[in-house]
Design a protein that fits this description.
By secondary structure, this protein is α/β, with parallel strands linked by helices. Helix content is 32%, strand content 24%. It has a domain of 95 residues: ANL, C-terminal domain (GMP Synthetase, Chain A, domain 3), CATH 3.30.300.30. β25 and β26 form a beta hairpin. It binds 5'-O-[(R)-(benzoyloxy)(hydroxy)phosphoryl]adenosine.
Length: 554
């Protein structure tokens, strides 16, 4: 049974996935104990000077699961999880799986706008924060949101300096709980239903507000197992989590879960900067890691200056945004490892090049779907499949692709076909050998250095700034970030400059990575014959700021 307000797979499809051994009835929360039995004192996690064995990890997870129950968290409760790449992220995510609560994976860069929305939409009972992180006080934000949302009754804090301890010592309302106290003698827990939601990922979003993607135990266990197998992971695998762990790419493609499942070691990097990651690759003899193209470019630049020993690195996975073939071609000669292109989405479908693919396919395609049960269609604007080799929108369904966003019936009616295919909003073609070539998008988002920004979300915020009467946001190509955020604005009176606009959006609590990189005032926005803002015209104009604005009154 799936949590309410989710869309389950049709019963016959689910039965087939079980019969065919795709869904094995695995409860993610039970994995760490099984790993501890198989891999015992081998190293599971490395973070800074800290090293944790599989047994230690499983013990900590059991204690934290019991601790959450003691703190009043119940099976089915949603808990927004916002932690950086620290061992506690892994402990807490698995402790929540173990006791049946459902973490909602948030980015550490999320601020008031995003967190309030996530807490409200998910009806979260708890919010797990790092305390003060990179100068931002997440605990204070938690207090503010709890004051607005009665459903939020616990803010769990990693860094217990000050605030949390004070309150735990007596005078508070029990809202703020140090994570150090989420620790109790383990007791038997029933375990979760494998067909139920294990956690929520965030969608890259095409709508003004981010959507929640329910991922079930069965579907995610299948995804991680399949990708780990495809890459031939084993006990000698050392995976570097360079990107944030809450990113689906890092968490399970094969990432953290795939590596641990095969008895490998996960090294948590605090951030993806080249210098730090190169030192970790050398020190820990890292064999596999995954980055977005912008990070890959930084690493190549740093490589020219660095004498770090990267010889242990066998495969660099690159995905999350379009990888320029020129950049792809530099990976093996300059970093000395194989390149694996990954096209993926939090919603499910993953395509990857295979270890034995020829060089040309590795450089120029995004590979094949990871599962034989992935169904992929390329359709024209009427929804009809195009002939092989033709370009169109990519549609997909399969054993680890969602059937509906959480609590979003209206959006779901548009985002899925009647027979359950998810409309990815990506434009792609299929080679005769069945490899995907991603060519563009029809969805209204900007992909800035791998971060996904829904144009509608930024537009809605800009429209609330005094002086602004209309706003349209489009991507503009950028050599370094892939794309940047370009805002066209209409103003009746004053025209606040970019710095003022950015400050206003920050003040409203929008995450920094969504702030426009450039703003241009125009007399009006161009419209399509149907009266919608013509984003094609705007994107072309953004790419060439000196070209005449043809739609403008002369
Ligand atoms: C990954 O997941 P999301 O959910 O942050 O973003 C998904 C979207 C895709 O629909 C596509 O528009 C874009 O990101 N994308 C790519 C790409 N990989 C993702 N566009 C062009 N080339 C690629 N290789 O980004 C994600 C999830 C799991 C693994 C890897 C990436």
């Amino acid at each position: 049974m799936m949590l309410e307000d989710c869309t389950p797979w049709p019963a016959a499809t689910a039965a087939r996935y079980r019969r065919e051994g795709i869904w094995l009835g695995t409860d993610l929360g039970s994995l760490p104990r099984a790993w501890a039995r198989a891999y015992g004192t081998d190293t599971a996690l490395v973070a800074g000077e800290q090293r944790m064995s599989f047994r230690e990890l499983a013990d900590r997870i059991d204690r934290r699961a019991a601790g959450f129950v003691r703190a009043g968290v119940r099976p089915g409760d949603r808990i927004v999880l916002q932690l950086p790449n620290v061992p506690e992220f892994v402990e807490i995510a698995f402790a929540l799986f173990r006791m049946g609560a459902k973490p909602v994976f948030s980015l550490t860069s999320h601020r008031a706008q995003e967190i309030r929305h996530l807490c409200e939409l998910s009806g979260a009972k708890g919010y797990v924060v790092p305390g003060v992180f990179r100068g931002f006080d997440h605990t204070a934000l938690g207090r503010r949101i709890a004051a607005e949302l009665p459903s939020l009754t616990k803010v769990f804090v990693l860094d217990t300096d000050g605030d949390a301890d004070q309150e735990a010592d007596g005078d508070g309302d029990g809202l703020v709980v140090p994570l150090g106290r989420v620790d109790a003698e383990p007791f038997p827990l029933p375990g979760a239903d494998p067909s139920d939601v294990a956690f929520f990922l965030l969608s890259g979003g095409t709508t003004a507000l981010p959507k929640l993607i329910p991922r079930t135990h069965d579907d995610y266990a299948y995804q991680t197992r399949t990708v780990a197998e495809l890459l031939g992971l084993g006990r000698d695998t050392v995976y570097l989590a360079a990107l944030p762990v809450e990113f689906n790419f890092t968490w399970g493609c094969p990432g953290v879960i795939g590596t641990l499942s095969r008895g490998g070691t996960v090294v948590l990097a605090p951030d993806p900067t080249a210098d730090g990651c190169f030192r970790l690759i050398e020190r820990e003899r890292v064999t596999l890691t995954s980055v977005v193209p912008t990070v890959a470019r930084l690493w190549l630049e740093e490589r020219e200056w660095s004498d770090a020993d990267l010889s242990s690195l066998r495969v660099l996975q690159i995905g999350g945004a379009r990888l320029e073939p020129e950049l792809a071609a530099r990976i093996t000669p300059e970093l000395g490892c194989r390149l694996q292109q990954v096209f993926g989405m939090a919603e499910g479908l993953l395509t990857m090049s295979r270890p034995d693919d020829d060089d040309h396919s590795v450089l120029h395609t995004q590979g094949q779907p990871v599962s034989e049960s992935d169904e992929v269609l390329i359709v024209d604007e009427h929804g009809h499949p195009v002939p092989r080799g033709g370009t169109g929108e990519l549609l997909t369904r399969g054993p680890y692709t969602l059937r509906g966003y959480y609590r979003a019936p209206e959006h779901n009616a548009r985002a899925f076909t009647a027979d359950g295919f998810y409309r990815t909003g990506d434009v792609a073609a299929m080679t005769p050998e069945g490899r995907l070539v991603v060519q563009g998008r029809i969805k209204d988002i900007v992909i800035r250095g791998g971060d996904k920004i829904a144009a509608g979300e930024v537009e809605a915020q800009l429209a609330t700034v005094p002086g602004i009467s209309a706003a349209a946001v489009v991507p503009v190509p950028d050599e370094f970030m892939g794309e940047r955020i370009y805002a066209f604005l209409v103003s009746r009176g004053e025209q606040p400059p970019l710095t003022v606009l950015k400050a206003a959006l920050q003040e409203r609590g929008l995450a920094d990575f969504k702030l426009p990189d450039r703003a241009e005032y125009v007399a009006r926005l161009p419209l399509t014959p149907l009266g919608k803002v013509d984003k094609k015209v705007l994107a072309a104009a953004a790419a060439d700021p000196t070209a005449p604005r043809g739609w403008e009154p002369s």
